[in-house]
Design goal:
alpha/beta; TIM Barrel; 8 strands
């Protein structure tokens, strides 16, 4: 899943793809790099980012959504606003990526009406209220895996009650969202424990602040950690990887797969 933030203030690429020409060119680049899905958002979810009215979100993203659809892409839209979801699903988007853990059940009703896939990402409250990157008290979770599981199931049940089909709901543990670096690393390392939910697992680790736990790197220097997280996540059951760097991530995954195939052949010889 290639990321396209049509925003002025996203933590890594804010302002890089604002405007019709730049956002559409980014769609083309992501597809050329091998993205299977394009995730388009018009509202930053970095800590402290202000909420963006639905009309402004649509003004930012609609040209890119239309362009991606014209290119034949599978389009996901990153929004928690039912009005935005309704509009883009009418245009032809197939997925709604909700980073609010279904704070507004009306979003699920919209997804159900259009038979769209709904990605429910775990979060506790708005990122607007968070004090900083990977800033969350250690004692905020006793067992972050089990508490994320429980709270996500509650959101899933609200979505089911709103009419979303069970096979249309995907799970994202929400690395960095109301979690500190240790929480995010724990979720990544124990990702396989979520396979029992029986839904596709989406992982968004790309360039995130928890990577800096190992060496203090800035977002621009976190490609290695981002790729390592993706390789580990695929081994632990992730089905969808949400990334900024499609070509590099895809290359790393293909090489890992090729090397493992050779190793398997050697063992079978």
């Amino acid at each position: 899943m290639g990321i396209l933030n049509v925003t002025p203030d996203s933590f890594f690429d804010g302002g890089h793809y604002a405007g019709v020409r730049l956002s559409c060119a980014r769609v083309d680049a992501l597809l050329e790099e091998g993205a299977d899905l394009i995730d388009i958002g018009g509202e930053s979810t970095r800590p402290g980012a202000p909420s963006v009215p639905p009309a402004l979100q649509l003004e930012r993203i609609e040209p890119a959504v239309k362009h991606a659809l014209e290119r034949g892409a599978i389009v996901s839209v990153d929004t928690a606003a039912p009005e935005v979801a309704e509009h883009v699903l009418r245009l032809g988007a197939q997925i709604i990526n909700d980073v609010s853990c279904l704070a507004d059940p009306a979003l699920a009703k919209v997804a159900a009406a259009h038979q769209a896939i709904l990605i429910l990402m775990h979060a506790r409250g708005s990122m607007t209220d968070m004090g900083g990157f990977s800033k969350y008290p250690d004692h905020g979770y006793r067992d972050v895996v089990e508490e994320v599981r429980r709270e996500w199931r509650e959101a899933r049940d609200r979505a089911l009650a709103a009419g979303v089909a069970r096979d249309k709901i995907w799970f994202d543990p929400g690395l960095g969202f109301n979690k500190n670096a240790r929480h995010s690393l724990t979720l990544l390392g124990r990702l396989n424990e979520f396979q029992s939910e029986g839904v596709p697992i989406v992982l968004g680790a790309s360039r995130k602040s928890f990577i800096a736990e190992v060496d203090g790197a800035s977002p621009g220097d976190r490609l290695g950690g981002s790729i390592a997280a993706c390789i580990l996540a695929t081994k632990l059951g992730a089905s969808v990887l949400r990334v900024h760097d499609v070509r590099a991530t895809r290359q790393a995954l293909l090489l890992t797969s090729a090397a493992e195939a050779v190793r398997g052949e050697a063992r079978g010889a």
